[in-house]
């Protein structure tokens, strides 16, 4: 099992920045990737960015360099630096960790952190 705890959400004005953090605990040695997703009411959860254990990153096409995902030195922490925030970035942001055991993938989710961008 992997446990994820997010922090860093809040209220910010348009054009501002926020940094989300997610710390993983438990069976972290088997994690192959961590990332961030977001969800607004009535819509499906969507990918924001992921980073693999090897440091490869992947971003949603709509971001266009607006956000940056990174890992801490201990590699059980992932960050999402969000710049130039827009009201449409308002969502609950979820941390995700993926592990692979005996060839089978398992996904874990944090409880979510609310990001609200005011116009």
The CA-CA distance between the termini, in Å, is: 40 Å
Mean pLDDT across every amino acid position: 94
Evaluate the radius of gyration. 14 Å
Tell me, briefly, the overall form.
Answer: globular
Q: Can you count the helices?
A: 0
Determine the strand fraction and express it as a percent band.
Answer: over 45%
Low-confidence stretches: none
Please give the number of β-strands: 11
User: Can you give the helix content as a percent range?
Assistant: under 10%
Content-based structural category: mainly beta
For the sheet with most strands, the description reads:
7 strands, mixed
Question: Order of helices and strands, N to C?
Answer: EEEEEEEEEEE
Q: Can you give a write-up of this model?
A:
The protein is mainly β. The protein has no helices and eleven strands. Strands 2, 4, 5, 6, 9, 10 and 11 form a seven-stranded mixed sheet that branches. A hairpin with a 6-residue loop joins strand 4 and strand 5 (46-52). The model has no long low-confidence stretch (mean pLDDT 94).
Task: Provide a brief overview of the structure.
Helices cover 0% and strands 61% of the residues.
Architecture blueprint of SSEs:
Elements: E1 2-7, E2 10-13, E3 18-26, E4 31-39, E5 46-52, E6 57-59, E7 67-71, E8 77-82, E9 91-101, E10 104-109, E11 113-118
Parallel strand pairs: 2-11
Antiparallel strand pairs: 1-3, 3-8, 4-5, 4-9, 5-6, 7-8, 9-10, 9-11
């Amino acid at each position: 099992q992997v446990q994820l705890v997010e922090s860093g959400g809040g209220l910010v004005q348009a054009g501002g920045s926020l940094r989300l953090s997610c710390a993983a605990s438990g069976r972290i040695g088997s994690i192959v990737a961590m990332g961030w997703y977001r969800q607004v009411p009535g819509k499906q959860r969507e990918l924001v960015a992921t980073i693999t254990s090897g440091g490869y990153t992947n971003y949603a096409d709509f971001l266009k360099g607006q956000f940056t995902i990174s890992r801490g030195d201990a590699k059980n922490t992932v960050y999402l630096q969000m710049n130039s925030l827009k009201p449409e970035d308002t969502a609950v942001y979820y941390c995700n960790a993926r592990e692979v055991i005996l060839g089978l993938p398992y996904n874990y989710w944090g409880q979510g952190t609310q990001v609200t961008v005011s116009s």
